[in-house]
Amino acid sequence: MIKKAVFLVTGNAMGFLLLLVRNLIVARLISPENYGVASTFAISMSIVEMLSYLGLTQLIVVDKDGDDPHFQAAMHGFQALRGCFASLVLFLIAGPYAAFLGITHIAWAYELLALIPFISGFQHYDPHRLRRHMKFTPTILSNSVPALASVLSVWPLTLVFGDYRIMLYALFVQAFAMVILSHLTAERRYKLTLDYALMKKASLFGWPLLLNGMLMFAVFNGERLIVGRELGMGQFAYFSMCFTLTLTPTLVLASSCQSLFLPMLTAVRDSPEKFQRLAITVMEVSLLIT
């Protein structure tokens, strides 16, 4: 287990580190005001994620039918619908969001950004399913390689653009690469179906996560929105970079902890003693990370 834990932490750290490098490079290349605008893209994506997050990637790991091809195809269908819904929401709030931050001339960028949830909605869930069997390589590749592609795209984008649009199109590169990698690392063919019974089951599973997502959005992004609105994009840029630098290590460890222990907890859920012992270990590790 220690080897898998080290592998997970290293792999996740690589993905987060590459994204941090991308952000640092972009921050160095453009003005603070432009980087402030670029930082608002992440918040707009977080708003959409908050409004539509149902934990489908966790469900395919923990559900007893998670290995069933039809179940996986139904999750693909639900994810595609979720992506369409998220894209529509982001497109509709683009104008009010830009007006709230006092950058109405950037509304078109948020409208264009609405395509990313739609693109991401067609990712293959096989890398997540394989986590059930403690196979983490596909997931790590699906996270790290797109981050690398996004970093490498910064240079040619800089030759064309010299402002916040570098980050905008780097996010598109990352989204396309993530979807492509999820298909390339999959063991099964991609199938998509709509099963309303399984969609209902997924919704019942995910609604507490949806409420938790709303709370976490307020915790992580509430003050950022206030800073952006009241102090302007220049100060918002400095605040966002400091926030990113301090939060990244926690995100790496928390993501690794969830990926490692979720399939292990699932495997012993029918054995109360083993489950309790492992659950205590998970809580102790979480406290240590904190």
Summarize the SSE layout with pairings.
Elements lengths: L1 H28 L2 H21 L3 H7 L6 H33 L5 H7 L1 H6 L5 H4 L7 H24 L4 H20 L11 H72 L4 H18 L1
Helix pairs in contact: 1-8, 1-10, 2-4, 2-9, 2-10, 3-10, 4-5, 4-10, 8-9, 10-11
Description:
The chain is mainly α and 290 residues long. It is built from 11 helices and no strands. The chain has helices at 2-29, 32-52, 56-62, 69-101, 107-113, 115-120, 126-129, 137-160, 165-184, 196-267, 272-289. The radius of gyration is 19 Å and the shape is globular.
| Arithmetic mean pLDDT | 85
Distance between the termini: 21 Å
Number of alpha- plus pi-helical segments: 11
Give start-end ranges of low-pLDDT stretches.
none
Compute the CA-based radius of gyration: 19 Å
Percent in helix: over 70%
H/E element order: HHHHHHHHHHH
Quantity of strands, as a count: 0
| SSE class | mainly alpha
Oligomeric state of the chains in view:
single chain
Largest sheet: none
How much strand content do the residues show? Answer: under 5%
Which word captures the global form? globular
